[in-house]
Amino acid sequence: MDINFTAEEAAFRDEVRAFLKDKLPEDISRKVKEHKRLGKEDTVRWQKILNEQGWLALHWPKEHGGTGWSPIQKHIFEEECAEAGAPTVLPFGVNMVAPVIIKFGTQEQKDYYLPRILKSEDWWCQGYSEPGAGSDLASLKTRAVREGDHYVVNGQKTWTTLGQHADMIFCLVRTDPDAKKQEGISFLLIDMNTPGITVRPLITLDGEHEVNEVFFDDVKVPVENLVGEENKGWTCAKYLLTFERTGIAGVGQSKAALAHLKQVAAQQISNGRPLIEDPHFRRRLADVEMELMSLEMTNLRTVAAAEAGGVPGAESSFLKIMGTELRQEITHLFRTAAGPYALPFLNEALHDDFDGNYVGPEFAASVSARYFNFRKLSIFGGSNEIQKNIISKMILGL
Ligand SMILES: Cc1cc2nc3c(=O)[nH]c(=O)nc-3n(C[C@H](O)[C@H](O)[C@H](O)COP(=O)(O)OP(=O)(O)OC[C@H]3O[C@@H](n4cnc5c(N)ncnc54)[C@H](O)[C@@H]3O)c2cc1C
């Protein structure tokens, strides 16, 4: 295994850097770097720019409009985007449902949905979890009954990220209640404007409206919106999750956050000297930096293995745990750096056009919101406890 970048890969990095310098809108990257609220229009604007360049669909094959990039190219691209302050691409369309449609969809589904996803014409959300089905996803109860040329769907999904903006939702539904748990599930594409769908906000600890409950009350879904075979949706569901966990380590984001934290700690004064010189804070910062370096090495090892044709296995569980814990720890250190100024919460200060007075230093305005928001990282994408179960079985053989 060789984790050094080749001359071609270094040239590719330069190309990505030049593109970001030229095309990433300054107002958007400023919002990302200053942790201001991003709107739907920011994400869509950036996705359209990426699509014009042919760089939106990282994981699709070339014939469908994907980049056809190698794992190393994708890694370089994601790292550069994080450093430049590019917003995260909405994963539900381009990175989740599209690969499922490409692998299991009909020709009509590919012809209709894939170009729309590339052009960001539909905002997608993910309808997997339910009040009684999260870690144990196969317990899901939302029911779809076939009646002629459509299914009638009844039930509830929850934690539906950004579902308030969505045009489409991909859902796991139970089509055979008598079969074994995993065998009676189907994968349906549902238009969010269909009568009988209600979206209700769930406000998270940071006061944001990011997730929702989605209720289905006799919702009619045409049978042509079934992906793959009826009752074989679990195969699609598992295939999609392999894409949900790509790039899960978040190394680029942590590196950018750590660089910012160091800047802040150099400016904040604690006991008459810059916080970065405080021995206790320095030690915690050094711990995070060392962990991040080892995470990056592990991440590069998986990327190099994927480049050589390997399939990431239980290592992605390891990356998920370490990556998310580090991102959470960095938000904790930001709060330490802000001290008492981490406490006041001025909701409007997170708006880009805020021209009022900050209670403390400007960076402190968003640190608590981010700290609370990032509790989600160890829950979604398969909770960290579930990842530990995977490691104990697959790596430790327990
Ligand atoms: C902010 C946010 C956004 C989300 N977005 C979406 C979305 O867009 N679409 C979607 O479908 N879902 C989404 N989810 C749901 C997410 O996938 C689930 O929350 C997650 O799978 C955990 O399920 P749960 O919340 O039902 O918790 P539970 O599964 O009930 O778990 C509760 C606790 O028990 C632990 N636990 C459960 N089983 C085990 C076990 N076998 N061994 C050890 N510990 C265990 C868990 O780790 C957790 O700590 C989102 C969640 C959050 C927080």
From TrEMBL:
Residues 125-219 form the Acyl-CoA oxidase/dehydrogenase middle domain. This is Acyl-CoA dehydrogenase family protein. Belongs to the acyl-CoA dehydrogenase family. It comes from the Bacteria. Keywords: FAD, Flavoprotein, Oxidoreductase. Residues 231-395 form the Acyl-CoA dehydrogenase/oxidase C-terminal domain. InterPro entries: Acyl-CoA_Oxase/DH_mid-dom, Acyl-CoA_Oxase/DH_mid-dom_sf, AcylCo_DH-like_C, AcylCo_DH/oxidase_C, AcylCoA_DH/ox_N, AcylCoA_DH/ox_N_sf, AcylCoA_DH/oxidase_NM_dom_sf, Mycobact_Acyl-CoA_DH. The keyword Hydrolase does not apply. PANTHER family: ACYL-COA DEHYDROGENASE, ACYL-COA DEHYDROGENASE FADE29. Its cofactor is FAD. Residues 6-120 form the Acyl-CoA dehydrogenase/oxidase N-terminal domain. It comes from Alloalcanivorax balearicus MACL04. The keyword Ligase does not apply.
